Amino acid sequence: MIVGTAGHIDHGKTTLVRALTGVDTDRLPEEKRRGISIELGYAFLDAPDADERIGFIDVPGHERLVHTMLAGATGIDYGLLLVAADDGVMPQTREHLAVLSLLGLSRGAVAVTKVDRAGAERVAAVQDEVAALLADTSLAGAPVLPVSAQTGVGLAALRELLFDAARSTAHRATEGAAFRLAIDRAFTLAGVGTVVTGTVHAGRVQIGDELAITPSAKGLRARVRSLHAQNQVVTEAHAGQRCAVALVGVAKDDIERGQWLVAPHATLDTQRLDATLTLWHGEAKPLRSGTPVHVHIGASDVMGTLAVLDAGEAQDALAPGARGRVQIVLNEPIAAWRGDHVVLRDNSASRTLAGGEVLDPFAPTRYRRTPQRLVELAAWSQPSAEARLAALLAAASNGVALRRWACAEGLDTTMAMPPLPAGSLRAVDATEGDWALGAEHRARVREAVLAALQVFHAQRPDELGPDAGRLRRLAAPRLPEPLWRAMLAALVAAGEVVVRGSFVHLPEHGLRLSAADQRLAQKIGPLLVAAGFEGSWARDLARATNESEALMRTTLARLASGGELHQVVKDLFYPTACMLKLAALARGVGAAHGGEVTAGTFRDAAGLGRKRAIQLLEYFDHVGLLRRVGDVHRLRSDSTVFQAEAA
């Protein structure tokens, strides 16, 4: 269990932690000289009858150091608010309580300190004052204990209270969650190297694991050399522990407070996120859209502006004590995952305004208040990852990018993903990532495809059908390409459509050639086969058969529309059998080169000139066998183009 202290400056936080643990958390020379905490301090206390070790994060109480307090508060399990008996409730008492409450912390206690300096009546009055202060917060009803670090009064009762709380603390889930640690300190240790410390928010880590530092313009990666968890040498650390990680491969100067140490597949950064937010009930004015704020997530503190998404009686504003959905636009990238706590302070960092949880770290730039988007945010608000995915699939008419969703959730994608709801369509794509389409939206796309083909056949009875790209534009123009390919494959498998070459048609529709077309097709058949991989030009075929070029082009176009031929560029045609061989060559080249096909490798495999090789590769891009990425063409892992004919 991680305990975070809170309270006004000089109310005895560090002294009480030292009395409980024997550890002085003020480690800096300036802290020793001035007698106040400036940086986060750490100490540990072992329970006498269990393996439980309680970690303390001792935070500064000065009003100018609330940002440091927040860096330590976001990962705690239990809040310990301190109020000095001689001073009573002070400004930072109220602000620190607001922070704990806005973080949603419902487990904690209040220690009325320095009772040796006040009479019994004064101590009782402060206890009553504190109990009243807690009434409208998440810590309402928390125990209020009188203690003295000097005389030892109440320390035994406080220790026992903490031990009981530790025993009842539920272990944070580690299975299925990617490792994430919020970095609050980085330093160099002689003989060890770069060390970072922080609270583990999710997952687990072992010695030897490769981790990423995010956000980072350099794309920093590092390997774990050694681990300390709860101030003990370990080989593995997990969520809910204070952890020090010695890293290999990264310099201390490349790391700063506010970054995260994470499993590589969970790396993200964002400058725009949607969240649920509660404005502190003690605020005098509503929180309006456009308000500049300090945004605290994990150990980070960046500036941003607010946009209220829910339209109520007071549009574009959140009333004191009210809860609503907002978008936060940040001035610089930070890392944040769904469910992370967020706290806002005012522009001058003089008071805490609001707090809540991140809903979607990949918030959209446009259409952020549309009914569709608000339905998606409601889906992000569901209580479990499986329920959120099901709700998003029901809401997203163009599907869900599963890799992006899993990253936002902070899931360990090396393990199995949550199951998809019955009837959903899944598209597996190594390049673009897996996608899923909900059952209802899948049915709508199916209906749109079949309807579009019926209209096309009615309007163009002399054509076999549209090519797959054109059909997508007609039926589902916004559907991501991996889902479109999966949808088309599913329709083919169900016998609802037929794909010939790059053309799609209904099973009952077939192209009928005229007698003249059939006569010409028989004449050019041997010539097309003889041309091999070089292909045949319309003018050359016309000359060889003593036919007019106009008639030849008309017949070739009709044969291409029927899927009998393939027009690679204007007037250059290949028969399907030859195209199957070229496609097989492209697949073979890709398999031998990590999925990449270049003009050079394909030219050598096919024995063609560079120009013809490029023309063929661009045609394969067009029909969906390949995908152009920079100067190379990548095989589409789920493409069935030119495979159905071969079968």
The unreliable regions are: 27-39, 61-65
Strand content: 25-35%
State mean pLDDT (0 to 100 scale).
Answer: 87
Strand order of the largest sheet: 2-3-1-4-5-6
Q: How many helices in DSSP terms? A: 18
Distance between the termini: 61 Å
Helix-strand category:
alpha+beta
Q: Which word captures the global form? A: elongated
Largest sheet: 6 strands, mixed
Helical content stands at 25-40%
Brief digest:
Helix content is 33%, strand content 28%. The protein is built from 18 helices and 34 strands.
Structure write-up:
By secondary structure, the protein is an alpha+beta fold. The strands form nine sheets. Strands 2-3-1-4-5-6 form a six-stranded mixed beta sheet, with helices on both faces. The longest helix has 21 residues, at 439-459. Residues 27-39 and 61-65 have low confidence and may be disordered.
Key phrases:
single chain; 6-stranded mixed beta sheet; 18 helices; alpha+beta; 647 residues
Give the secondary structure arrangement, pairings included.
Elements: E1 2-7, H1 13-21, H2 29-34, E2 41-46, E3 53-58, H3 66-73, E4 78-84, H4 91-102, E5 108-113, H5 120-134, E6 144-146, H6 155-167, E7 180-189, E8 193-202, E9 204-206, E10 210-214, E11 221-229, E12 232-234, E13 236-238, E14 242-248, E15 260-262, E16 270-279, E17 287-288, E18 292-297, E19 300-308, E20 317-318, E21 323-334, E22 341-346, E23 352-360, H7 371-380, H8 385-395, E24 400-401, H9 402-409, E25 425-427, E26 435-437, H10 439-459, H11 468-475, H12 481-493, E27 498-500, E28 503-505, H13 515-531, E29 536-537, H14 538-545, H15 549-561, E30 565-569, E31 572-575, H16 576-592, E32 596-597, H17 599-606, H18 610-623, E33 626-629, E34 632-635
Parallel strand pairs: 1-3, 1-4, 4-5, 5-6
Antiparallel strand pairs: 2-3, 7-8, 7-15, 8-14, 9-13, 10-11, 10-15, 11-12, 11-14, 16-21, 16-23, 17-20, 18-19, 18-22, 19-21, 22-23, 24-26, 25-26, 27-28, 29-31, 30-31, 32-34, 33-34
